[in-house]
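Hey, can you fold this one?
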Amino acid sequence: MEVESFARLIVEKLEADSRAREFDEVAIIAAPRFLGTLRKALPPALRKLVKHEIHHDLVHRPESEIRAHLPDRW
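Sure. Predicted structure:
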């Protein structure tokens, strides 16, 4: 299914960036229906790096609105 394939692509990118030490924690922002699919695709090591989950579809929102959902330190 396309949704699961897309989730796997995201996980592959996150894993590669994690190995390259591009981040040491991550926030996931996704529509509620996709967030569950993405959670299932995350391996345990990557799941430990998820510090924030935001269950909103913000794909067409301006950056300022997206940032308002994140902690100030991000």
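Helices lie at 2-19, 32-41, 44-47, 63-68. Let me know if you want another pass with a different chain boundary.
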